[in-house]
Write a structure and sequence with these properties.
The protein is 44% helix and 18% strand. It is of the alpha/beta class. The protein folds into 2 domains: 85 residues, K Homology domain, type 1 (Ribosomal Protein S8, Chain: A, domain 1, 2-Layer Sandwich), CATH 3.30.1370.10; 221 residues, Rossmann fold.
Length: 323
Amino acid sequence: MSEVTHLTCAFSDNGLVQELVGPHNENLTRLEQRLDVVLHSRGNTITIEGAPAQALRAEAALKQLYKRLSEGLAVEMGDVDGVARLVQDGSASEGPDLSIRTRKRHITARSPAQAAYLQALEKYELVFALGPAGTGKTYMAVAKAVSLKLAGTVDRIVLSRPAVEAGERLGFLPGDMREKIDPYLRPLYDALYDMLPGDYVAKLLLSGEIEVAPLAFMRGRTLTSAFIILDEAQNTTPVQMKMALTRMGENSRMVVTGDLSQVDLPRGTKSGLEDALETLHDVKGMGRVAFTHRDVVRHDLVTRIVEAYDKRDAQRRKASDPE
């Protein structure tokens, strides 16, 4: 019979404990599912029952979530899942606080790779973020850009994407250039509006302090004191990628995000993201963070969908490899 440990967590604020527990104990239920423990709440204490290692992880998770509440931050289901991931990895309380604050959001890591990403965004002037959708690659980069703009560290934010998506090209879309471009850039706008009040975003867009534009609009420019985000970079050509990377001017930072399993370029065209990773492999002063399906922080079903596609692609590669 496996060993079972009983631990007790006592907290000073009963009101915060109620928020920690969640409506109908939903937060505790979630932690029980994630960490394979049994939790009971009574007054300002929560008891933990489970295997020794898992009980300690649950204790660490409860303390992390309580700390978040004591700092005036909400605890949502995504935060519970995130802390559970981090304690499983053993990284929930290591290192300095690398959270990102904007006017509307306080962003913290919800997976070990996100924690590494926050560290890379703090340390490096150029960061490559690779992996599937739903891992927070673009969202956290926009958050970092906004926080540095608010702090006065950079003067402007430039958000860009190559205008090639799922086999479509701008010329075939109806409307003027703005109407053709905006659908490709909508995820970047969405992230901005999640970080800042809408009227403030509109003001910064009007003044040019925030620029959202297709990659082609960056040609021939040198961007100084700017935070540049090149999103969906797997859909750049090598020439486009070189052009984008060489736009960095004095006091500028750049984040390049992409998913090499989702390349929409014409057959036979090499991805500029893949080419850059190969070419710049030994160049110092850059960060590189790889996300996997385990880092997906959207709906649980999204994680399973991404995992299923990864498994299928791996089987196809194995079947096509020569003996």
